[in-house]
Amino acid sequence: xxxxxxxxxxxxxxxxxxxxxxxxxxxxxxxxxxxxxxxxxxxxxxxxxxxxxxxxxxxxxxxxxxxxxxxxxxxxxxxxxxxxxxxxxxxxxxxxxxxxxxxxxxxxxxxxxxxxxxxxxxxxxxxxxxxxxxxxxxxxxxxxxxxxxxxxxxxxxxxxxxxxxxxxxxxxxxxxxxxxxxxxxxxxxxxxxxxxxxxxxxxxxxxxxxxxxxxxxxxxxxxxxxxxxxxxxxxxxxxxxxxxxxxxxxxxxxxxxxxxxxxxxxxxxxxxxxxxxxxxxxxxxxxxxxxxxxxxxxxxxxxxxxxxxxxxxxxxxxxxxxxxxxxxxxxxxxxxxxxxxxxxxxxxxxxxxxxxxxxxxxxxxxxxxxxxxxxxxxxxxxxxxxxxxxxxxxxxxxxxxxxxxxxxxxxxxxxxxxxxxxxxxxxxxxxxxxxxxxxxxxxxxxxxxxxxxxxxxxxxxxxxxxxxxxxxxxxxxxxxxxxxxxxxxxxxxxxxxxxxxxxxxxxxxxxxxxxxxxxxxxxxxxxxxxxxxxxx
Length: 536
Hints:
The protein is an alpha/beta fold. It has 18 helices and 18 strands. The strands form 4 sheets. The chain has a 6-stranded mixed β-sheet with strand order 5-6-7-3-8-9, sandwiched between helices. Strands 14-15-16-12-17-18 form a 6-stranded mixed β-sheet, sandwiched between helices.
């Protein structure tokens, strides 16, 4: 289906791949992994023909239809959500124009014509509206939102509509670049189940290890400018990668010992007439060796200790009789919630149930109509929202901002933490004014960790982080001595951290005093996590 051979690609003098190869066959489910900047998205661009490699070939079966979901997508004009999901928002017209051009050029037997024809057929099928609505519903849209103007929605919701259209077309090969970034937990579980049963092939980039464990059967890692293939899911890849590293390191060390012994003999006896020929033979033996490169150790999570926050009261925060409505839409009526010191509480539930609203009420950034919000004794509250950057001094560099945030933080410690959160050496001297939204989000997250509150509220903290950095954050929060309330769609992150679950659904908040698996067990649903989360 897809064969990549001996690929070479570089950017700004830095080689991304050299002699890299990748094979994707029908039915394969492959995760492409590697640190940020390794070249994962670049490889997608090469597969799609958007960029040309310096060397190597990319071969696709002529009859293969490829569908691609980028990380970002915008809505323009007056199209509705359903228009986007069915392709009526321009894609059908684009395909018809392309087909006419290829027909005029006499290229009706070309792979481009066959692919465009297959996509056009899928989007003009009589059942396309029904299929699109099914996909939209699975991805979190409610029926009354199908005819909403897409330009009124956030970028994340627009991306869901683009993903729905992709699934409607059912490509033979799906290329997905961080497909879970804009999904809530319920929609993620739906997509996970859908892809696990998808009939076509799948090549995806993701930072969600649980998602990859459930969906993929192969992992291809970009490392040392090569693409290295492993069989199994993400957890199995980690085990194999560690074993491979140990084996390669042992072979490297053994060869180095052998070279050192041969060199020592040659150095000692080359001037001894009776043994000079033997010494030269030893040197030639070294020259004939196929040298084993010293393997690069697998990138591992950075371990750092969050400083102990000031000790708060036994009850961190209490909400009493909260009434909250957006206009005529009632979210909560008489809500009662209490969070105890030291708890690590995750808010779960379907999209639109009010999880972020509840977190904002706790944070004091959203006014409610009735009730009382009580902070505990000596409470020092911090609210991390992925949609709202905290105050950053535009004139300070990234490094200066972090050093200023941690009262007892040394500069070398700040550099290490910044590196673990994907700020490269040259990037720590950038002014915060020029940072992207994702960079600002990561920088604000670091500021919370170096000068922590004793009540930390976090909305999707793992967004914009790669998988190793997520693991670094997870380990740090496991040792955090304060109280944590968070929302996440990363099941591995939830399982590692949550000691209590608040299920938000239908205006009610139900407490489960245990972890995520305890919540699933107590709600029944036959092990169906999505059913448990959406049950009112």
